[in-house]
Amino acid sequence: QVQLVESGGGLVQAGGSLRLSCTASGRAFSTSSVGWFRQAPGKEREFVAAITAVKQKTFYGDSMRDRSIISRDNDNNAVDLQLDRLEPEDTAIYYCNRMTSIYVASSALDDWGQGTQVTVSS
Hints:
With 122 residues, this protein is mainly β. It has strands spanning 3-7, 10-13, 18-25, 33-39, 46-51, 58-60, 68-73, 78-83, 92-99, 116-121. A hairpin with a 4-residue loop joins strand 7 and strand 8.
């Protein structure tokens, strides 16, 4: 059983940065693609970025394509998401999840955790 835990969220002013981390238990994590998603109040869940396993190929959604970097931290069994130049519109709960295809947002497993709250003030 693989469990994913998101962390790193917080309150920042517009223009600030945050680094989110998705840590996992179980060896299956290192062999699975992992994606980051976000969901703001009253809005649908939105794909942000994803990364494959060994080759670490990345794919980004349109919303934060030029303001985010997804990467693997294999030493810590984690997938990180660096967020830069944050805007109030980025306020949301950010989730990570395993995916069967980094190009298909709906391929994420239907097992969502608590997420980590990102709040950006004006």
